[in-house]
UniProtKB/TrEMBL annotation:
Annotated transmembrane regions: 26-47
Protein name per Swiss-Prot or TrEMBL: Uncharacterized protein
Region (Disordered) residue spans: 54-86
Keywords in alphabetical order: Membrane, Transmembrane, Transmembrane helix
Amino acid sequence: MTDPAPQTPEAFESSARPPLVRRPQFWLVVVAAILAVIVAFVVGAAIGGAGVGSGGAAAGAAPTTGNTDEAATPPASSAPPTPLPVVHEIPEDCEAIYTRDWSGDFAPLVLNPAWAMEPESGVQFGSVDETAVELLTSASAITCKWGNPAGGSDRGLTTNVAHVTEEQAAAIIAHFGESGHSCYEELQGTRCVRETPPSADGQAGESHFIRDDVWIATHWVNAGPDGYTHDIVAAIFG
């Protein structure tokens, strides 16, 4: 009988080890791999679901721009629009508030003598009524004065042409009616006049014409040619 072949150390070590499937380390690796796959799947599903939730609205509907004017605008009303207030242009030059030259009617007075244009001249307003002066201070668009070229005298006339609102016009007309002026309809507007009784010093008075958004206020002392206010009305209103 022949002796069996001697075993090498490698062969001995191999025969001494148990099979791979019987080793605990093998199953630990397998379980760890399975758990890693499961965790990866769950994380991937969560990330994918979040992406759909955040981008789904953009994918399923047109993106909003933040402009909600169209949605917030109520439907147009069937009621007719409120007409805008009438605005008439007031000339910036005194000669333009008339349709003709009044120099001959006022002579020897002249239009806007230098002394009368100074603030301290005391002839700034077409009224001596405190309520009227208060409104003219802020509303007057132009002031035109007829006076003695050499200085103050017992003759003169001052006219303010002012823009007023509907409420201001109604209030000043009511005030004139309560303060002794005679008010009546004229030239599609309202005219309010008042005169002082004649005296040794002559006579003074006021004329106020209000139409739409324009107020023509005139204060005169011994100088008031006929047709003066009518001519200003014609120049502004046509």
